[in-house]
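Worked problem 6 (solution included).
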Amino acid sequence: MLARNPVHSSADFETTLAFLRNKGLDGRIAAGDTDARRRFRSAINAVYGTGFYLAYMQYGVDVEIDAPADRADYSFSIPYRGEMASSTPQGPMACTNQQTVITSPGQPQTMFLSGGTQRLSMSIDAGLLRRRFALLTGEQVRGDIVFDPKMRVANGPGQLILSNIELVIDAYDRGGDVFANPCRETQFEETVLTALLVYQPHSHGWLLDRPAPAPASRDVKRVIDFLHENLETTLSLDDLVSIAGVPGRTLNEHFRAFTGLAPMAYARRERLRAVRRLLLSGEMQSVTEAAMRFGFSHLGRFAALYREGFGETPSETVRRAKLRSHGQSTVV
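Solution. The predicted structure is:
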């Protein structure tokens, strides 16, 4: 599984332990197996998206893997072979192909893995998840979103999440590269993260129960259509008001009701997304040229907005696009 993308393999436990510690993890061979170090064989394969990764892992002997509370990611693992359990605030819970454990920032975790365990793992950056939730609710999240740790994967939304993960892995194993295409990566991200946020119980779920935003009025539709057709044109609020055909205050109220953003903030977000699509495509490797093309003349401010919006710098996006075009791993 994911054999085309090996990240780490070793017959030496200490070498693998150093690799795990470099990722903010720790581990040990389970007590009582005196021959375990001789039989130890680690294999970790992974593919990386923007703010998340999928990985296949096995160790060959009974091990315990610790993830500290200060890790800024959400993660869950599904065993395909062997036995696995994970710690939760309620105590250890078995992880199977029916249910697993999803951990949240601030919650330390210990995974207990039998020697025959082969597992698929997904990690999601906390910033990426917060941004997706903000898009769903129309407001910024305060504090970490904390999930109910028990997550079913045999049916319902859990099955949808697993099916999308397996689809991506199958594409890689057949020689494809789904995440090389920004549209496909976005589709995967939206499907998996939205399913998690909408259906898996969590601390901020009450925000989803509020009334839905108002439908887009004609003035908002006119402005949005014009913006997407003219992303390379720098427009003022007066321009947008003229296009909308309503007073500025009315346009602002309608925009906030439909998008959660003021008109100019919405325009800026869409221009940032356009820059990102261009950099990910590999068609333009100059961050300055890409930013200027879509109206960002203050490069320092642009870089700050880009990092805030996407969780990485523009140059990091360019680097990932180059690595993908050469078929190299993006592991840090």
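Discussion: The longest strand covers residues 73-81.
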